[in-house]
UniProtKB/TrEMBL annotation:
It comes from the Bacteria. It comes from Streptomyces marianii. Residues 79-236 form the Nucleoside phosphorylase domain. This is Uridine phosphorylase. Pfam families: PNP_UDP_1. GO terms for cellular component: cytosol.
């Protein structure tokens, strides 16, 4: 094993090192207590971060809670899609539950949440479907070779974009900058990453896309703009953001069920 340079957090070959821990251990622990803990029959999982969106989804007809099979709240919709919420923010928290979900059989993952725009073109409520994510967080570097970007699954992303368009959404595709440090986002970084065509900043996408790629599970990501780093404007609870999130939830549900139907399951 090559050793890291002074101050570097990871050896260069970290993604190749065998892990002492395995999410299958969590799955075995849960199934010993809940033999029905199986997500393989679901079209997929949608990750939700905003409590208002999770509460909206839970109130829908036919949606019912599941046991706490992972370190999060789970609901199954009338379409069979599993909603995962209540696990916190950031790539480490999201990556942990995604590992647990996949170990229980999750076949596809879509993450939808808010993001800050890096450009004055996007206003609150604007929708962005992730074309790839700049790996400014730490989690992805434990899973993938050194690199600058990680891309979502192209087929699932196309289905998500098509579903959003069918619902009348003016969603654009764009690059996200994923960061761990919400309160350390700087103007210099915004200039750097907009020069690389990033249009939004988020805290989860790169990590989730790395975990799912490592586990060979398709994933996609989408965002509703909530605030701005281009001309700093704090979040104002604009109703358009909530409307955008609800539309993305509908689009993600359609994308997963459409993929499931096309697979003949």
């Amino acid at each position: 094993m090559s050793m890291p340079a002074p101050g570097a957090p990871l050896p260069a070959d970290k993604h190749l090192l065998p892990s002492l821990t395995d999410p299958a251990e969590h799955a075995a622990y849960i199934r010993a207590r809940h033999p029905d803990a199986d997500l393989a029959r679901s079209p997929g999982v949608i990750l939700l971060y905003q409590s208002s969106l999770a509460e909206h989804a839970a109130r829908r007809t036919g949606t019912r809670p599941l046991e706490r099979w992972v370190s999060a709240d789970l609901h199954r919709t009338a379409e069979g899609v599993v909603l995962c919420s209540g696990f916190g923010r950031g790539a480490p928290a999201a990556g942990l539950v995604v590992e647990q979900l996949i170990a229980l059989g999750a076949r596809a993952v879509i993450t939808i949440g808010t993001a800050a725009t890096l450009t004055d073109i996007l206003q609150p409520g604007a929708l962005v479907i992730c074309q790839d994510a700049l790996r400014g967080e730490g989690l992805s570097h434990h899973y993938l070779p050194p690199g600058r970007y990680v891309a979502p699954d192209p087929d699932l992303t196309d289905r998500l974009a098509a579903a959003a368009a069918t619902l009348g959404a003016a969603a654009r595709r764009g690059r996200a900058w994923t960061t761990d440090a919400l309160y350390r986002e700087s103007a210099a970084e915004v200039r750097q990453y907009t020069a690389e065509d990033a249009v939004v900043a988020d805290m989860e996408a790169a990590g989730i896309l790395a975990v799912t790629r490592y586990r060979h599970v398709p994933a996609a990501a989408a965002f509703a703009v909530a605030d701005s780093l281009a001309s700093r404007a704090p979040r104002t609870n604009a109703p358009q953001t909530g409307e955008g999130l609800r539309l993305l939830l509908d689009a993600a549900t359609r994308a997963l069920t459409d993929r499931d139907a096309k697979s003949g399951r």
